[in-house]
User: Fold this.
Amino acid sequence: HGTQMQALLKFNDPVTVETVTLSSIIDIGSYLFPPLSIEVWGGDDPKKLKLLKRINPEQPLTSGPAFMRGFDCTFAPVTVKYIKVTATALPKLPLWHTGKGEKGWFFTDEIFVN
Assistant:
């Protein structure tokens, strides 16, 4: 809420990766929206990571029941020792929302690396 989520994953041995999935709860009534954007970075040095994928998840147009959602970031297979995942919360709730203009929240519970 109000800041960008950043998670740095370090592997003792290099791993080959082609998908990173960020699992999240979406609960529009509680201001929990999909992130505005998700980026996945990777490499062998945490200070010299390369952007592997950026997605801009579709935003809901109406309210509805809460649900869990995985946001898949798929890219060409790459071998890395570090993965950084960032997610940017919605800066302003849409005009149709009861909290219009307020900052959105983004919650994540798991990051899957495949």
